[in-house]
Amino acid sequence: MIRARMCCAISVLAAGFLMIGAAHGVAQVTRSIVARGDTQIEVLSQGGGPLIVLLPSLGRGAEDFDAIAARVAAAGFRVVRPQPRGIGASRGPMTGIDLHDYANDVAAVIESQKGGPAFVVGHAFGNRVARLLATTRPELVRAVALVAANVGRDPSPPKVREAIKASADLSLPEEARLAALQFAFFAPGNDARAWLAGWHSDVLAAERIAGDKTPREEDFAAGRAPVLYLQPDHDPLADVANAEAYKRTLGERVTVVVIPHAGHAAITEQPDFVAEELVKYAKALP
User: Fold this and answer.
1) What distance in Å separates the CA atoms of residue 86 and residue 267, rounded to the nearest whole number?
2) What phi, psi does 34 have (nearest 5°)?
3) Which of 57, 125, 178, 213 is 20 to 30 A from 263 (CA-CA)?
């Protein structure tokens, strides 16, 4: 039924503070570094309570979750957002890696919090990292949420992949980028200008190669974790039928909720709805 509505030594280094506005008041965000071998991951953290980890989309950073993170933290959770390698202060090899490396980065962040296991939320590309982490490190994952996920075993359609690439290409005219953004990410009537900024083309390229190198069968089932599947109603990469098929395959551990009037950029288009569903699901977890 669908409702509409590794590891290794870890050291936490420098921390800074940033104040951001939110609908529920002002939330304090701390920035810290988790070091893992030759990799360091910048982590944005706020709030207190059960741990929720938010993982961003292809070629984009943790700031896309600003509004959602503030709302979820205000509801009584510890919200942690690792920046992908190559964004902010996050550093690490960008070639010769696959999704396991990205999942191991998140594992190190969860272990550094000493508050796991975590409810791991992945938007778009981030959902594959979340599912693989649940598969390889199940002791660290309480549940996963897939937001605007493409759970199929085939890569995204070529036209969509080209539109995503064009969206992040700052050398293109703004008009061309807006057309690509509207096609690939935003539901009709939603303002694609929200995503003109925030792209990291080198990160996008590295993540895409890593994703293509990792067989989709490895992360498909998210281990045995409970799954909240937040499916936009206007997503060109995957539609409601895909969510229904995923639930039929994995059974009752999957809960599907349709995000109204949203495309692949659902966390920007409908942040209140997404935050409400994450909080409701998290509070119901055993």
Assistant:
1) 22
2) -110, 120
3) 213
Query: Is 186 a domain residue?
Result: no
Give the model confidence (pLDDT) of 121-143 as tens digits: 999 999 999 999 999 999 999 99
What distance in Å separates the CA atoms of residue 108 and residue 140, rounded to the nearest whole number? Answer: 10
| Structural domain includes residue 169 | no
* Number of domains present in the structure of the chain: 1
Residue 286 has a pLDDT of: 86
Question: CATH number for the domain including 90?
Answer: 3.40.50.1820
- Look at residue 10 in the predicted model and tell me its pLDDT: 39
Q: Give the range of the structural domain holding residue 125, as residue numbers without chain letter.
A: 2-152+200-284
Rounded to whole angstroms, how far apart are CA atoms 63 and 123? 12
Q: Are 100 and 110 in contact (CB under 8 A)?
A: no
C-alpha span between 3 and 254 (Å, rounded): 12
Question: What does residue 83 show for φ and ψ, rounded to 5 degrees?
Answer: -80, 135
Residue 275 domain-assigned?
yes
The pLDDT tens digits of the residues spanning 20-56 come to 343 444 469 999 999 999 999 999 999 999 999 999 9
Q: How far apart are CA 52 and CA 220, in angstroms?
A: 21
